[in-house]
Fold YcjX family protein.
Amino acid sequence: MASSLTTFTDEARIALDTLSGRATGLFSPSLRLGVTGLSRAGKTVFISALVHNLIHGGRLPLFEAQKSGRIARAFLEQQPDDAVPRFQYEDHIAALVNDRAWPDSTRAISELRLTIEYESASGWSRMFSSGKLSVDIVDYPGEWLLDLPLLGKSFADFSREAFEMAVLPVREDLSQAWRTLSAQIDPNADADEMSARRLAESFAAYLKACKLDERALSTLPPGRFLMPGDLEGSPALTFAPLAGLGDRRPRPGSLHAMMDRRYEAYKTHVVKPFFREHITRLDRQIVLIDAMQALNAGPGAMADLERAVTEILSCFRPGRGSFLTDLFSRRIDRILVAATKADHLHHESHDRLQAIVRRLADRAVARANFTGADVDVVAMAAMRATREGTVKQGRETLPVIIGTPIAGEKINGETFDGKTETAIFPGDLPENIDAVFDISGPDHKQDSVDPAIRFVRFRPPKLERTAEGVTLSLPHIRLDRALQFLIGDHLA
Ligand SMILES: Nc1nc2c(ncn2[C@@H]2O[C@H](COP(=O)(O)OP(=O)(O)OP(=O)(O)O)[C@@H](O)[C@H]2O)c(=O)[nH]1
Ligand SMILES: [Mg+2]
């Protein structure tokens, strides 16, 4: 009797907490926005530009609340999660604005709370809402997300797939050293730390080589082998797939048993907590992709990118029967797949880039075990590093983009010094989208076919300043469209 009474009061208290939590939520609603993408996709620049444009009232004509003057102010507040590193907004903006340098690579998760005070468009909503929305922006590596499918795989499955992927033509040479080492080691031999470490290091070196390869291969798990965060060197990261395991159960004390246990530890202590604590709490998600780099590298790289996007999408809204479904506490209802760096193309090609991303996303949605979220696409530049112009060549007038290439960048044998503004004819994206995806067509890097687009990296733009020395808003392409899709409806 007594114990059931305690249970009752506990439950009541929890229910009450939830209720009051809801009530506070009502007065200051929050929206968790996940920002992901493989490394160098443009996450840090996107978040910095988004926050700067909102705080400083940047030019955002497609962001309805801003355009109609309903945003009173936007400001940074303390983030709700004390254990997650803060997104270092001020440092990134200082690099972009003062040094005209791109921010450093960020290798782990971070978070920032941006609060927007606004006036509702309708009188009805004005009466019932606080006119305040906190957006919790969470930046995390896409590589970590690609680990989620591991939750449904045994060590034997993981090993088999790793070896299958390793002998694909695009990876065969890169995986050679690891496969050779692996062939010399007997999984059934006694466990020994040195063999485990040598295998793990060799396997990680192969994954890193894929990442650096100019064929722009996207990523294979485990993601922490590429982005260890603070786990570098821990036993949960000291494992590697083993060859020829079949369905054999590991002999206790063997290398096989040791690797199997560490793989399971990786899932339990790394993958699952990350998914539960971060992914399942998201409301909205943007997936940034570096389509420019993949396009430049050819259809093989596009296919690889498509595979990565498929896997990423299937993690967000797992369909019925997926082992991931049970873990979700909230539902992501909108996902934006965004190709950044559109400022490398003349605006005439922006719609083509967007059409290519749409095709990629559609195919990924169709293939992923995925239900129920709105997926939209955009070709954008979070920070526009170029302007447009024309150059006369004989009788022809060519559309060009003008910017300052980063020191050391090369085009047609010319090396840039990082100071000189240069006009570049970027080339056009093909009108026929199929060509971009056609794996049987020429792969630019393998044949010596000229790439469709010429790709140099530019420095961030020189910003105009007012007479008082205040920098004007950061230039962008379609950042406002992205914002409208991601948070616009919450400010209606
Ligand atoms: N021209 C142009 N370049 C961009 C833009 N966004 C990102 N870049 C380039 O892409 C690089 C990577 O951008 P980041 O924002 O640091 O990418 P990230 O996804 O945070 O990368 P990691 O932190 O390494 O995972 C930058 O250093 C720039 O060279 C953009 O809008 N325009
Ligand atoms: Mg980053």
